[in-house]
Design brief:
The complex is a heterodimer of chains A (266) and B (258). Chain A has 266 residues and is mostly helical. Chain A contains eleven helices and no strands. Chain A has one domain. In chain A, 77% of the residues lie in helices and 0% in strands. Chain B is mostly helical. Chain B is 81% helix and 0% strand. In chain B, helix 3 runs antiparallel to helix 8 (169-183), helix 3 packs across helix 10 (206-218) and helix 7 (150-166) packs parallel to helix 11. Classes of the chains: A mainly alpha (266), B mainly alpha (258).
Chain lengths: 266, 258
Amino acid sequence: MSGRAVFTGRVFAELEKGLTIYARYKIWLFSDLISWPFWTIFFFLSFLMYAPSLLSSQYHLNAFTWSFFTFILVSSFMWASNFLATSAQAGILEYVIITGCSIREHMLGRSIVSFIDLAVGGPLLLLISAAGFGTRLFVAYPHLMFVALVLASAFFYFFSSMLAVLLVSLRSPWIIINVAQFIIPFTSGAIPVEVLPAELRSIITYSPFFYIIHPIVASATGQYFLPPGLVLTVGGILCLATYLASRVLEDVLLRRALRHGKFTIF
Amino acid sequence: MRALNQLAGIVEAEFKALIREAGVFIFVVFFPFMISLLTYGAGQALTGGAASPTQWFYQLIGFTIMMIALTMSSSSAWYFRRGMMTGRLEYILAAPISPLTAVLSSALTNTIFNIAYFIVVAAIGVIAVYGAYYLANILGVILFLALALLPVIGFNLLVGILTIFFREPEPVANLINAIVSTVSGFAYPIILLPSFLQILGLILPYSHIVDGVREILAGSFRLAQLSPHIFLLGYLILGLAVFKVGEAVYVRKSGVHW
């Protein structure tokens, strides 16, 4: 069998594993479907408590809906980072390596759950915003939105792989993930740039995550802070860099695991 | 006396287990500051710098009570689930101790831990916004929380029984936490919610707790405001009753008792 066929087989096996695990916990699906609307209302109003008048501005309601959409995207993928530590603690990772499967391929099984979470939670959020807050949703640049979503999904898949390797030896990686899932999106463009004070606008462009997160919100509102071509090009380069970094980290982790017999890069 | 000794013994053991989770403690202390500063920053941006520190304090206190609510319901769900997974529930049922004493000891540990946690966060917030002079009001909050968290213990007994039924602590806790967080006025006045959610918020114990805590800290609490809490004790009675029924059913199915 060719190398490509072996790779494809492993990828499909991982995807099947992810889907099987996801479908096994039906109570989770039920819980998610009911809790998402509540969490959405909660975060919406937590931010808008400071400016309740914005609840009557269609532009801001639309912009904030897409802000929380990016939060769901980031959060869904960030939680995949927890998976490797859990695999290591359960003793599964050793078996994964024996099969010749790479860590990134192993992560794919968990990442498919992130994609499903996004596919369910994202539209549900849009629906809740429209039905609950009367938001008239619109996307100013649908073609750029498509590119931005593909870019963000790829970036956060590689980024969560990197983070998973870095956190693999921690007993409670969820603490870091929980903090990061809020800080990363809301300091990097999830809040529409045009509502920020002028001095803050230029500062957030120094965050690499800005070039991944800002295009989603900006494609919806039509307010790109920098030229769309530039933002998406930088985002693409960052995505490539994250992919390479995840490969390097994975190699380092594997070498250390084989040499020292435990999964840690520190 | 014997029951008190048993209670003290379990509380001590539970405290030792809590102390081992230093990372979790740091997280729960850090979380209200992180999330309230995040929303405050966004509020500053949205209002052009008009967000006030008292609004930040309003949310800080709300997020702290929210963390207490979330950790208590999650702990309760996990207590029962871990008990089922490890066989601890059967040991408790088979031991010469009332199962209720064991469960309430765990709840008591949680309550003491959460009040201590509240003191740490609220003290920082009070000093930052109102000054050290207002720190004395925290003493009033300690007494208030000791009473006001009783219905929460009953509420979480219901959560625990639900966990036994569904066998999955995380989705049960996640669902309850989402509803409680949204309707209880932790981060915003419940008047901003649709009316049916406002009613749900008033039925649950948490909106009364967070309002009471804010009033005490601001020095404007009146005894008359305690009246809803007397009715909320119904949660404790309901929780204990459902627990006894759940215990009887579990004993019948697992066949253990002392």
